[in-house]
Amino acid sequence: EWLDVSPSTEVKYDDLFSYKNGFKDQLTGVYTALCSEELYGAHLGFGMLDALGQQYYWNQEAGTYYYLHRFVYDNPKSEEVINSIWNNMYNAIANVNILLQGIEDHRGILAADEEKIYEGEAYALRAFLHFDLLRLFGKSYVSGAGEKAIPYVSKISKEITPLSTVSEVLDSVITDLEKAAFLLENDPVRTGEATTSFLGTRSFHFNYYAVRALMARVYLYKNDKVNALKNATEVILSHKYPWVEKGQVATTTRDNRDGIFLTECILMLNNTRLETITETYLKKSENNTVGNLLVTQAEVRDEIFENTLYGGSDWRYIYYFEPIDSYYVNTKLWQVSSSYNNRQPLLRISEMYLIAAECAGSKKEALEYFNTLRQHRGFEVTDDLKEEDTTDEKLQTAIGKEYRKEFIGEGQWFFYCKRTDQATLPNVQVPFSKAYYVLPIPDQELEYGNRN
Description:
The protein has helices at residues 13-16, 20-34, 48-52, 66-69, 76-105, 112-137, 141-144, 166-183, 188-191, 197-200, 208-221, 225-238, 246-249, 274-281, 298-304, 307-310, 315-319, 349-359, 363-375, 392-406, 412-419, 443-448, and strands at residues 148-151, 163-165, 265-270, 296-297, 321-324, 327-330, 343-348. It is mainly alpha-helical and 452 residues long. The radius of gyration is 22 Å and the shape is globular.
């Protein structure tokens, strides 16, 4: 029997979950995977999604995202990005399911409070990953709630998981998030008591309030404004995520500037590769290749931030960008100060205010949420939208403009346009079709899953 040993590159399932650190290693592995360039490190943040959202400009036919920017999904470069997202997302889901199965099969290895945290985070991660896959590869709820979208993979199996409809995926996401919220009721982020240092770094983990914030996002996507508002306001009223202080943003140099508004971050990635990734795409450096430095035209930046109205006061306009040649690059994720290094936002309190503004029961309440956000971005009280002057249509337009400003470098603007079924995108370089909101499922998946 002494010859029956595991290869050095393989960790057997029961071996992994026979000790506490095995659960930690499995969960850490999932978060690390999300940091990759193929997922939230680039493609699903400032990269592909902001290219689709027309936030950048190309003056030559080159770079990772050039053809995606023009919605040419069948170009080999586009296919490489799309396929890598699909494969890496489902690989991460498989590892989440392994963790969930490991917890189920090895009850008692972890202390009871730890076990709930690990299990709650796993359910939340599974929901989060499937929801973004749905937002990428399925139709929006308003345009195709009953149409087949993606497989919702909830167990480890060699059997092919059938496609679920948009509505079915959203229901499964909500079910997993409800489980997560229940398991995370005594999350250290709420109690202030962490049993281990690993569980104490809650902003880098899918904590209780991150679950509620994601639920607000999901319910709004489903056009359930009552539940979206309920979850958004729970996060707001927790007072756990205070607005960034002006002094942290309005610095004379970029060296110690808070580009991500750290105190407002509900969930972040601890991305140790972020410096390398940003120097490839968002900084002029020796890592740049042709077409990969993501730049914004000055006139587009002025348009996004309504420069003629608010350019002199909006912190995001003044402090988010640096000039390079005749263009601008977004500096939100630049790695300069050690206070903000490696931190990449996934969920922020500002989105909860925008959700609350969109879902509030009265216009007065909606404007309170909306104006509060803008006042904490440098706007004067005299710039507040007034109830008597603001139609429902004008408020929705203003909310959309704030999504475009607030989530530069985070990819949420394209998803906003899809959710609200916008007929076109600002500054689009080619004739636009709503069909572009749905990325093609990789050919390999269609063939393997017999989905043609």
